[in-house]
């Protein structure tokens, strides 16, 4: 039994970070929100107004006395908090799973310092069964991601390929490739494929298809696994966050469930 609560720091107070902060402030036994890092501190103060216990508001460097840092930054800022957190032997909970694929050397840092990298399921389901299946031979793991144009807009791949998603009138496959390729092409839209890859066959053997569909208003993911011990398909429709439709409303809850696991005497699922 821990003598004191786990001290939590939040890196990023955007659409996911704000939800996580609110849920932590509502109170979870064994967890204490002590600090948040935000790029606009005045806006952060406004977002945290009314909190029961106001955490410190500062920069990424101000998270350096926490036990657990929850990374919820744009992919480009991922390493700015991931590396120092792991260098000091703390635990890093990763939202930007796609960005982790370009920084797999951090696993060696964690091994050296005793730090831990934890990738919650986020917006995807079935990682428990994927991990279990991968204890036996697995033939293939694929994911199809279907999103509205608003949930895909701004991805670097669209600009590179000259694709105007807002002009599409019918569902269109705009990308097929590996999870590794997708993480670079769609850094804010394919974290699900990265998490799936890390749970299963790795970023070069996990295939993703991205479909832009003007008729949908959810972020929709379908995983298909063919393995020696089981064949399964998992499907999820997630409500996008109003502040950032690229991210859905399940991810903050997945992070909270993951943090709860760290202090709970009982753990459910693989
Ligand atoms: N694992 C998963 O299943 C999912 C992962 N994500 C990923 O989670 C991450 C966070 O998502 P959102 O909250 O929706 O993004 P967001 O763009 O709404 O929020 C990011 C926040 O980080 C802040 N920020 C940027 N640089 C900073 C710095 N140096 N210091 C402090 N704050 C900084 C921004 O001002 C913004 O408030 C993204 O990388 C997103 O792609 C999103 C959905 C699902
Ligand atoms: O569906 C979501 O909420 C977000 C998503 O696809 C991703 O980041 O991979």
UniProtKB/TrEMBL annotation:
<comment type="pathway">
    <text>Cofactor biosynthesis; NAD(+) biosynthesis; iminoaspartate from L-aspartate (dehydrogenase route): step 1/1.</text>
</comment>
<feature type="domain" description="Aspartate/homoserine dehydrogenase NAD-binding">
    <location>
        <begin position="12"/>
        <end position="120"/>
    </location>
</feature>
<keyword id="KW-0662">Pyridine nucleotide biosynthesis</keyword>
<protein>
    <recommendedName>
        <fullName>L-aspartate dehydrogenase</fullName>
        <ecNumber>1.4.1.21</ecNumber>
    </recommendedName>
</protein>
<dbReference type="InterPro" id="IPR036291">
    <property type="entry name" value="NAD(P)-bd_dom_sf"/>
</dbReference>
<dbReference type="Pfam" id="PF01958">
    <property type="entry name" value="Asp_DH_C"/>
</dbReference>
<keyword id="KW-0560">Oxidoreductase</keyword>
<comment type="similarity">
    <text>Belongs to the L-aspartate dehydrogenase family.</text>
</comment>
<dbReference type="GO" id="GO:0016639">
    <property type="term" value="F:oxidoreductase activity, acting on the CH-NH2 group of donors, NAD or NADP as acceptor"/>
</dbReference>
<keyword id="KW-0521">NADP</keyword>
<dbReference type="GO" id="GO:0033735">
    <property type="term" value="F:aspartate dehydrogenase [NAD(P)+] activity"/>
</dbReference>
<dbReference type="GO" id="GO:0009435">
    <property type="term" value="P:NAD+ biosynthetic process"/>
</dbReference>
<dbReference type="GO" id="GO:0050661">
    <property type="term" value="F:NADP binding"/>
</dbReference>
<dbReference type="InterPro" id="IPR020626">
    <property type="entry name" value="Asp_DH_prok"/>
</dbReference>
<dbReference type="InterPro" id="IPR002811">
    <property type="entry name" value="Asp_DH"/>
</dbReference>
<feature type="binding site">
    <location>
        <position position="123"/>
    </location>
    <ligand>
        <name>NAD(+)</name>
    </ligand>
</feature>
<keyword id="KW-0520">NAD</keyword>
<comment type="function">
    <text>Specifically catalyzes the NAD or NADP-dependent dehydrogenation of L-aspartate to iminoaspartate.</text>
</comment>
<feature type="active site">
    <location>
        <position position="221"/>
    </location>
</feature>
<dbReference type="GO" id="GO:0051287">
    <property type="term" value="F:NAD binding"/>
</dbReference>
<feature type="domain" description="Aspartate dehydrogenase">
    <location>
        <begin position="169"/>
        <end position="256"/>
    </location>
</feature>
<dbReference type="InterPro" id="IPR011182">
    <property type="entry name" value="L-Asp_DH"/>
</dbReference>
<dbReference type="InterPro" id="IPR005106">
    <property type="entry name" value="Asp/hSer_DH_NAD-bd"/>
</dbReference>
<feature type="binding site">
    <location>
        <position position="191"/>
    </location>
    <ligand>
        <name>NAD(+)</name>
    </ligand>
</feature>
<dbReference type="Pfam" id="PF03447">
    <property type="entry name" value="NAD_binding_3"/>
</dbReference>
């Amino acid at each position: 039994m821990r003598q004191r609560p786990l001290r939590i720091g939040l890196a990023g107070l955007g659409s996911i970070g704000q939800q996580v902060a609110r849920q932590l402030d509502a109170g979870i036994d064994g967890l204490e929100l002590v600090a948040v890092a935000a790029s606009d501190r005045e806006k952060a103060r406004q977002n945290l107004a009314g909190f029961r216990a106001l955490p410190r508001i500062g920069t990424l460097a101000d998270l350096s006395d926490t036990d657990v840092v929850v990374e919820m930054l744009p992919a480009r800022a991922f390493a700015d908090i991931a590396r120092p957190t792991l260098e000091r032997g703390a635990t890093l909970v990763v939202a930007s799973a796609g960005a982790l694929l370009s920084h797999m050397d951090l696993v060696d840092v964690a091994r050296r310092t005793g730090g831990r990298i934890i990738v919650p399921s986020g917006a995807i389901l079935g990682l428990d069964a994927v991990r279990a299946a991968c204890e036996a031979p697995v033939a293939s793991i694929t994911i199809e991601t279907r999103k509205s144009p608003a949930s895909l807009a701004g991805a670097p791949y669209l600009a590179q390929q000259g694709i105007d998603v807002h002009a599409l009138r019918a569902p269109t496959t705009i990308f097929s490739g590996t999870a590794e390729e997708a993480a670079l092409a769609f850094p804010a839209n394919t974290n699900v494929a990265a998490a799936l890859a890390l749970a299963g066959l790795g970023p070069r053997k996990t295939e993703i298809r991205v479909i832009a569909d003007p008729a949908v208003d959810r972020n929709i993911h379908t995983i298909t696994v063919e393995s020696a011990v089981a064949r399964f398909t998992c499907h999820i429709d997630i409500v996008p966050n109003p502040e950032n439709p690229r991210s859905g409303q399940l991810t903050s809850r997945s992070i909270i469930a993951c943090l709860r696991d760290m202090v709970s005497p009982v753990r459910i699922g693989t």
